[in-house]
Amino acid sequence: MGVSLPRRLTGGRRSFARNRFVVPIAVILATALMFYCSNLYRMSLLRYDGVRLDSMWDSITSTTSPSPSPSSPPKPPKLEVPVSDPTNFLKKVQAKFNSTIHSVHADTFMTVEGYNYTIRNGSNRWTEPLGQRLLILDADSRVSEKEIDSMLTPSPLNDDIMSGRTAGMLNHFLYALIHGYDYRLVKSPPMTDRHGTWSKVSLIKEALKTHDYVVFLDADATFQYYRLPYEWLMSMWGFGTDSLVAMPEDPNSPVNQDSKGWVLWNTGFITAQQSERTQEMFERWENCPLGERYPECKHWAYDWAHEQAAFGAFVRYEYEVGKGKDMVPIPCMDGNGANYIVDKKCGGVFVAHHWFYKDLPTRELYEKLDDSFVVDLQNYFHLNQKKYYVDASEYTYPLNDLKI
C-alpha cells in the first residue's frame, strides 16, 4: 500500500529538484556574461595599435584559439588568398594601371577633393619619361628578415599584421613599378656621431652617383595618386633642369621656423637631381655637424630636428630658392601633412605625411588595393630582392664606395 505524501512536501521536493539545476545554470550564465563584458572592455581600449575590432570580435565568438594580444609577438598569418605567378606581376600592374595614367603633357589635374591644379605657362615641362634614371629610395636601419611585418618577411602579410612602415614602402615600390622608375630599399648603417635620421643625406648623395634623379620618402609618407607620373609633379612644382633639390614646407608655426623666422622644409620627402653642384651641396649638408663650414651647426647632430634643422638654418641660405631655381619649395598643401590635420594648408594632396599616425599607410594601402594584389606585390619584391634591396648595414660613414 503506497504512502501518499502531503502536497506541500511533494511540492518541496519538486522545488528542490528545480533549484538543484537552476544554481549551476545561473553560475554558468554569470561566468559567460563576465567573459563577454571583459572582452568588450578590451575592445573599447583599442585604438591605432594594429588590431582591428572585427578581429577581436572573431576571437570572442570563434571556437578556435583567439589571436595573440598586441603585447605578444603575433605569429605570421597563413596565406588565405590565392597568389598569382609573381613573374607575371608586371603584366598585372600594367593591366591595372596603364589605362588610367595621367598624361605628362596634360596642363591640369583634378583631385578627389575637387582641387584643380594647373601647370603655368612658361614652366619647365618634363614630358619625356625618366624611367630607370629616376630612383624611388627607401632607407631604414631597422629592416630585418626577423621582423614578421617587414618588407623582408618571406611570409605573406595581411592588413592585420602589416606595419605602417612596410605599407609605406610597398606604396613607394608600386608607384615605381607603375611608372617604370627604379627602386631601392637600403638597410642603412648605424650612425655613430649623430642621430640616425642623418643617414638619408649620405644615402641620397650616393644614390645620385648611379641615378640622375632620386626621390626619397620616409616610410610614413605616401603617394596619393598612383596614376600621376612624377614628371608631371616636377613640372607643376617648378623643378627645373638645373634645380638641385625640392622639399615640402612644414606647417608654418614658430616651432617649425629657423632663427630668422623662415619655415623649415621637411626632409621626409626629398627630390634631388644629380650634378656637381648637387654633390657639393649634399657634402656641405652631410658635414654640417662637424662645425667646419658652419660652426653653430654642431648641436644639430643630435638636437631635434637634426638634418632638417641643419639644412634649414644653414645650407639653403647659400643657394637660390624658388621655382626653377637651385632649391624648390613644394607647398605644404601638396607634399606634407594630410587631410585630417588641423592646419588645412597642409593637406598632403599628392604626398601625405602621417607624422603621428604611423599605421595609417596600412589602411591606405588596403583601401586602394585588394588583398591578393598586395600579396603579389610583396612576392614580386622578394622574387627580385637582389635588385631592389641593398644591405649596407656593415658599411661605415662616409659612404664613398656604396653602390645603390
UniProtKB/TrEMBL annotation:
<dbReference type="InterPro" id="IPR005069">
    <property type="entry name" value="Nucl-diP-sugar_transferase"/>
</dbReference>
<dbReference type="Pfam" id="PF03407">
    <property type="entry name" value="Nucleotid_trans"/>
</dbReference>
<feature type="transmembrane region" description="Helical">
    <location>
        <begin position="21"/>
        <end position="41"/>
    </location>
</feature>
<feature type="compositionally biased region" description="Pro residues">
    <location>
        <begin position="67"/>
        <end position="76"/>
    </location>
</feature>
<keyword id="KW-0472">Membrane</keyword>
<dbReference type="InterPro" id="IPR029044">
    <property type="entry name" value="Nucleotide-diphossugar_trans"/>
</dbReference>
<dbReference type="GO" id="GO:0006487">
    <property type="term" value="P:protein N-linked glycosylation"/>
</dbReference>
<feature type="region of interest" description="Disordered">
    <location>
        <begin position="61"/>
        <end position="84"/>
    </location>
</feature>
<comment type="similarity">
    <text>Belongs to the glycosyltransferase 34 family.</text>
</comment>
<comment type="similarity">
    <text>Belongs to the glycosyltransferase 77 family.</text>
</comment>
<protein>
    <recommendedName>
        <fullName>Nucleotide-diphospho-sugar transferase domain-containing protein</fullName>
    </recommendedName>
</protein>
<dbReference type="GO" id="GO:0016757">
    <property type="term" value="F:glycosyltransferase activity"/>
</dbReference>
<keyword id="KW-1133">Transmembrane helix</keyword>
<keyword id="KW-0808">Transferase</keyword>
<keyword id="KW-0812">Transmembrane</keyword>
<dbReference type="InterPro" id="IPR008630">
    <property type="entry name" value="Glyco_trans_34"/>
</dbReference>
<feature type="domain" description="Nucleotide-diphospho-sugar transferase">
    <location>
        <begin position="197"/>
        <end position="319"/>
    </location>
</feature>
<keyword id="KW-0328">Glycosyltransferase</keyword>
<dbReference type="GO" id="GO:0000139">
    <property type="term" value="C:Golgi membrane"/>
</dbReference>
